[in-house]
Structure formats: structure tokens, C-alpha cells
């Protein structure tokens, strides 16, 4: 694969995205606010991620005449959510692409090694004909992302992209070290990880903030 097609990081800098992300970072934002903003950001970002989706022309009758007009081509898209924080983006994604299929990858971080350990994996059938967007709001160490992509690639989907809100430089390096062909879409690239694998300055634990578990 030519180098220009590898190690792509799409930084979504749209002012609406950046504004909502700032509100999400605020430690004083409630779980309700955090969840709502995450849903809105997912809706805005999926618009960028799906920009190059193939279309085909079909005949449509308007009230005035018949024309050829584009619709999305091929089998239904798959959103592959990395549990649990990925689920916080699903409602927004499905509002924009309501006929998408949803897969789940259950991974937890071993607190000592920070390595990803799989406990659940379920994808739709016919993956070899589908485009997959893997979703997790936080690309931190990249261990979960790499593990999810390893499993998904074994199913030979037509394409794979990775969508997050915040990426740490370490996570980008890890993901592209193992999967240089997978483009990353993110609203921000933060400074670094702390010793517990949290993104700095970050927004805290996304799962806890979505589900109000802390
Ligand atoms: N997961 C989170 O929820 N937050 C981080 O900062 C890193 C990983």
C-alpha cells in the first residue's frame, strides 16, 4: 500500500465539534450533559467518517419529473462498539445512519499490565462485504483498539476505520504500529498518558462519565 494511504489521522476541527468537546472536558458537566454531548459529537463526526462512502445512481420520481439520484451503495455499514464507552456513541451514530448494523467487542484493561483482555465479541454476518467503523471515545494506550482491529481483520471486512473523540499520541502510535492501513478520526490529539493510562488533559474516565458510575 502506498505510504500516503497509511497512518492517516483525520483531526476534525469543526468549531461545533471543538465547542462540544470543551463542554465534555469540563469536570462540572453532569452525566446527562456528557451523554447528550457525546451523542451530538458522534452525529457530527460520523458525517466526516462516511465522507467517501460509495454511492450509486437510482431512478427517483419527484413530483415534477424522473431523475437519477445517488443513494449509498453496498451492504449495510457496521458500527463496532468497544464496550463499554463505545456504546455512548451508538445512539448518535444510528440517528445519522439508522440502517447500520451494530457489533460489540468487550475488552477490559488489566489494571497492572494495561493490556486488553477480551470477554465478548459479536459481529453481524457477511462482514467480508461490509465497511466497519470501530468506535471508542478514548484512544489511550491503543491496546483495546489494536486487539479489536486484530479480531475484526480476521473477518476480512471491505474496509475498517477507527472513530474516537480524544487520542493520545501513544495510542495513535500503537494503533498505526500494528494497523497502519486503518485511518483514525478524532476531535483532539491530547498531550500524553499518565502512569494509569489516562489521557492528559483528557476528560476523565469516559465510561464512568457516560454511565454515572463514579
Ligand atoms: N479511557 C478513558 O475513559 N479515559 C482515559 O483518559 C483513557 C482511557
How do the strands and helices of this protein lay out in sequence?
Blueprint (H helix, E strand, L loop, with lengths): L8 E3 L3 H11 L5 H19 L5 E7 L4 E7 L5 E6 L3 H10 L4 E9 L6 E7 L8 E5 L2 E2 L3 H11 L5 E5 L2 E2 L1 H10 L5 E3 L1 E2 L2 E2 L5 E2 L5 H6 L3
Describe the fold and architecture.
- The chain contains six helices and 14 strands.
- It has one domain: Rossmann fold (3-Layer(aba) Sandwich).
- A seven-stranded mixed β-sheet has the order 1-11-9-7-4-5-6, sandwiched between helices.
- It starts with 8 loop residues before the first strand and ends with a helix.
- It has helices at residues 15-25, 31-49, 87-96, 143-153, 169-178, 206-211; strands at 9-11, 55-61, 66-72, 78-83, 101-109, 116-122, 131-135, 138-139, 159-163, 166-167, 184-186, 188-189, 192-193, 199-200.
- By secondary structure, the protein is an alpha/beta fold.
- 31% of the residues lie in helices and 29% in strands.
- It binds uracil (URA).
- Uracil (URA) is lined by residues 85, 138, 140, 197-199, 202, 205-207.
Question: What is the compact description of this entry?
Answer:
This protein has helices at 15-25, 31-49, 87-96, 143-153, 169-178, 206-211; strands spanning 9-11, 55-61, 66-72, 78-83, 101-109, 116-122, 131-135, 138-139, 159-163, 166-167, 184-186, 188-189, 192-193, 199-200.
Mean pLDDT: 95
What overall form do the CA principal axes indicate? globular
By helix and strand content, what is the structural category?
A: alpha/beta
CATH level-3 fold name: Rossmann fold
Amino acid at each position: 500500500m502506498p505510504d500516503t494511504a497509511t497512518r492517516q489521522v483525520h483531526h476534525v476541527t469543526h468549531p461545533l465539534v471543538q465547542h462540544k468537546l470543551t463542554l465534555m472536558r469540563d469536570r462540572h458537566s453532569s452525566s446527562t450533559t456528557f451523554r447528550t454531548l457525546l451523542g451530538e459529537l458522534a452525529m457530527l463526526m460520523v458525517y466526516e467518517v462516511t465522507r467517501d462512502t460509495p454511492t450509486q445512481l437510482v431512478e427517483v420520481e419527484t413530483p415534477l419529473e424522473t431523475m437519477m439520484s445517488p443513494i449509498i451503495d453496498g451492504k449495510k455499514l457496521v458500527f463496532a462498539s468497544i464496550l463499554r464507552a463505545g456504546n455512548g456513541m451508538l445512539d448518535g451514530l444510528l440517528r445519522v445512519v439508522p440502517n447500520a448494523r451494530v457489533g460489540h467487542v468487550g475488552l477490559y484493561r488489566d489494571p497492572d499490565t494495561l493490556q486488553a483482555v477480551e470477554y465478548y465479541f459479536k459481529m453481524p454476518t457477511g462482514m467480508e462485504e461490509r465497511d466497519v467503523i470501530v468506535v471508542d471515545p478514548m484512544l489511550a494506550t491503543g491496546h483495546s483498539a489494536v486487539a479489536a482491529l486484530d479480531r475484526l481483520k480476521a473477518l476480512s471486512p471491505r474496509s475498517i476505520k477507527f472513530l474516537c473523540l480524544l487520542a493520545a499520541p501513544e495510542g495513535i502510535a500503537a494503533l498505526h504500529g500494528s494497523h497502519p492501513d486503518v485511518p483514525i478520526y478524532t476531535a483532539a490529539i491530547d498531550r500524553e498518558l499518565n502512569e494509569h493510562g489516562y489521557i492528559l488533559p483528557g476528560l476523565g474516565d469516559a465510561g464512568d462519565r457516560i454511565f454515572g458510575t463514579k
